[in-house]
Amino acid sequence: MPYSSIAYITAHRLGDALFQTPAIRQLKSAIPGISISIIAPSAASYAVFEGNPDIDALYDASSSIPEALKGRTFDLTMINCSNRFAMPICKSINGPQRFPAGLEEIRSKKKEPALANDLQHSCVGSLESLCASLQISSTCNDYSYTLPFTKQDELQVDRILKQLDVSNRTLIGLHLGCRSVRKHLSFLKSDITHKKAWRLNEATRFCQLLSEKHPEIRCLATGTQAEGIFTKKLAKACPNVIDVVDLFSIKEAAALMHRLQTYVVTDTGMLHVASTTPVHIVGLYAVTNPAITGPSPGRTAHTAIQRDSMDAITGDIVFDAVHKALTT
User: Fold this and answer.
1) pTM for the full model?
2) Residue 238: which of 315, 163, 162 has the closest Cα?
């Protein structure tokens, strides 16, 4: 069946929304004249698709259903988020609605340890499931993520770096935690214990080595309030660290990546923001597999450090990876 208008309810998490941008680009290319409307169930997914050149309309459904969306009829609505977010949206619009073919299988595979011969990146799975649902048989050669930022975003980054007196410094980035860290916060804790977050004592060791070997470099510790307790401790212990928690929006963070030499980051949304830029990523993986949820397939500026737990990723190991990236 030919479609002239498709609505696409995106994933609500930052990384998952970025995973879907290659599928949207492929859809726009494969069906000439198709009108694609993105319905974003979160502020993060809205930011991902704002300014995306492959879409025709964008609706912010993060807090309520937009009036302009209510009663709209689409030839097809594709649902790519959990029912908790999708159901209120689906009830407000008209036309056939369905999950992409194979989406549930992809989700179940992500929850199970993948076999060596059964690895598929999440963004590849999103694209293939969308193509299968719409009976599109075109070949994709570009799985890069789309995250356009503006000149205003660049200017804001420049202003912040000048205020911090580091605009003329060599900069690297460091992201300790992940979205779920806030569920495990305690002011009594001396270290981060979340399974996906890097340990504060090892990050301190890394920053001390960086100061000894590369005293000219400043390290920007990014994050949200969830990581803020620990980035403040890190900045207090290491004079070469500057706490920039909550200073940059998602689009500004993408612009910031163009100013960094390398970015040390756990498997979280900021890893995928970095993947949209040329910055060299040093990714820290424990409970996730970089072949499935790492940077976009085909991206070469990436050093994966994978261990059985975050406790095994030492500051010395990370420093060696960063030093190599800086000097080669």
Assistant:
1) 0.90
2) 315
Confidence category of residue 104, pLDDT binned at 50, 70, 90: very low
* Alpha carbons 198 and 302: distance in angstroms, whole number: 18
Shortest CA distance to 318 belongs to which of 147, 326, 48, 224? Answer: 326
Check residue 316 and give left, alpha or beta (phi > 0: left; psi -120 to 50: alpha).
Answer: alpha
Cα separation, 195 vs 178, whole angstroms: 10
**C-alpha R_g of the chain:** 20
Position 202 pLDDT exceeds 70: yes
Residue 38's nearest CA partner among 60, 22, 16 is: 60
CATH architecture, range 151-327 = 3-Layer(aba) Sandwich (3.40)
Q: Where in the chain is the domain with CATH 3.40.50.2000?
A: 5-133, 151-327
Please report, in angstroms and rounded to a whole number, the separation of the first and last CA atoms in the chain. Answer: 52
Cα separation, 296 vs 303, whole angstroms: 13
CATH 1.10.10.10 fits 5-133, yes or no: no
